[in-house]
Amino acid sequence: MKKIYILFLTTIILIPSAKAQLDYKDVAQVFYNNCTSCHHVGGGAPMPLMTYTQTSTFAASILYHVQEGHMPPWSPDTSYSRFSHERAITQADKSAIISWVNSGALPGDTTLAPAAPVYTSQYQLSGTPTIVLRTPVFPSNAGSTDSYVCFSIPSGLTQDRVLRAYEVIPGNAPIVHHALVFVDTTGTAASDLTGQCFSLPGDFGIGGYAPGAAPTVFPGQAPLKAGIRIKAGSNIILQIHYPAGSSGQLDSTQIRMYFYPEGETGIRPIYNKELLENWSLYMLPNTVTTFTDKYPDNGTLQAPLSIFATFPHSHMVCKSIVNYAYAGTDTIPLVRINNWDFMWQGYYTYTNLIKIPAGYKLFSKHVYDNTANNPNNPNSPPALVVAGTSTGDEMLFDEYMWLDYQAGDELIDIEELLANDTLLSVNINKVSANAFTKVFVYPNPASNKLSIYLSKTSEYKVRILNITGQTILKAETFTDNTALDVSSIPPGLYIVEVLDSKTNERITKKIVISN
User: Fold this and answer.
1) Where are the domains of the chain?
2) 202 and 184 in contact (C-beta within 8 Å)?
3) Torsion sign, CA atoms 77, 80, 86, 89
4) What string of H, E and C letters represents the secondary structure of 249-318?
5) Whole-structure pTM value
6) Lowest-confidence pick of 56-65, 130-139, 463-472, 475-484
7) 103: which DSSP letter?
8) Does CATH number 2.60.120.230 belong to domain 271-411?
9) CATH superfamily, domain at 434-513
10) Averaged over 469-475, what is the pLDDT?
C-alpha cells in the first residue's frame, strides 16, 4: 500500500517540433520533472535516472512503462477531479520520451543538457521538528512473502499538541515499500513484529509514506490553519511494509513530527476516518462484481463538510473505484481511478477544499475482477475472495480528511498555500541554489488582465497553456514583471509557465480564467 501526498506540479516542456530526432538535451528536463524525485541515489527507486548513461541504460524499460501508463505513478483520473501536485505526465512529455527512445536514445551533446536537480538532504522539511521518533534496528522478515510490521513508539508528549506536519524517513529506503502512521491515544498498544500486522492498532490514522511522496503538511497560515490533535501520552504506530526477498536486511525508520506552538489559537481540527467501507464482499471465482457503500448509512449529512484529502483503498482483485457526493440527481465528483493498482495508492490532497453541503450523501463503487483476465489476481486459477485485511483478501475502505465547513472554504487554494508555506519550507525537487524565490500570479481567478511578478531580476519568458499542454498565449521577454491580456481566453483551468532564459529553470502555477 502506498500513501502519497502532495508536493510537486509536473512542469510542461516545449519540445522543438522542427527537429526530426530528439537527443538527450531535449528530454533531460522531462526526466528531471517526472522521474528523478524517486529515481536518484537514495530516492527509493531501484535505479537513478540523473544522467544520460543512467537513463539510456534503461531506455527499453522506460519506453514500456511510459507507454503502459505505469510511470510516473498517478492513479486518479484528472478529468474527474483535481489534486495538488499531480504526478500525471503531460502528453508532450510522454511523446518526447517515446520519440527519444524510438530514435535510438541518442546522446547528442550531453553538455548542452540542463543542469540536473540537486538532492542535498534526506529531509524534505526544513526547520527543527518538535519530536523525532525512530524504530529499533529491525532485520526484515520478508522471505518469500511480503511482511507487515507494526512498531508502537511512545510519543513522549506530556500535554496535548496539534500536529502541523510530519515526514517519514526510511532507514533503508530500497526495502521500505510503504509506511502507515496511526495514533494510539491510550499509549498501551504493543508492537507486532510477526510480519502479519495487517490490522493496525490505535485510534486513528494520520497518513503515511511512500517512495517519492511528499511529507504530510497541513496549511498553517491565513486563510486556513489546520491540524490534528494528539493527546498526551499517545503512542505513534508505524506499520512498515517490507517486500518479499528483503529478509535479513536492516532498517530503522524515523518519523519527524512538527507541532504548532503551545497555546497557538485559530487552528481548525482536521478529522480522518474511513467514511465508506463494506465488509460484506464475496467474490466467486471467474466473476466480475460490483460493491458499493454510502455515508451516512441512513439519512444524509446533517452539517456541511470541507473535504481536504481522500484515500481510496482496495487490494489486488479490484479494477476501478469511483467516489462522489450526491443529492437527488446532483453529484459532486471526489475521486475516480479507472485502473486500480494496489502497488501505487495513497492520500490525495485536493487543490481546493471540496464543499459537501448538508443533505448530501457520499457514495463509493468498487469493481472487482476475479477472473484470469486480471493480471493482478493473486490466485491462479481464480479462487473465492472475501473481505479481510490480508493482501489476498479484498477491501472497500475509502478514507477522508475533512474539516467542519465554514463559509468561503471552497475558495481556499490549498495547493497555493502548501506551495508557499512560510512556516515549513518544503525542499522538494530543488534544482539549484538559484531557483526562483517567489513567483506571484494575480488575480486568480483572472478575467481581463493577469499580472506576473518575480522577486528576482533575470530574463524571463512566459506562456499560458491549457491542461492538455497546448500553448494559448505567449509574452515577450521581461525582467521581473509583466501583465497579460487574457480577456479573449475561454473560461477554464490553465497553467502559467515561467522560464528563466539564463538558467533554463522553469516554474508553473495553476490559474483559473473566468471570463
Assistant:
1) 24-112, 131-267, 271-411, 434-513
2) yes
3) positive
4) CEECCEEEEEECCCCCCCCEECEEEEEEEECCCEECCCEEEEEEEEECCCCCCCCCEEEEEEECCCCCCE
5) 0.73
6) 463-472
7) T
8) yes
9) Macroglobulin (MG2) domain (2.60.40.1930)
10) 84
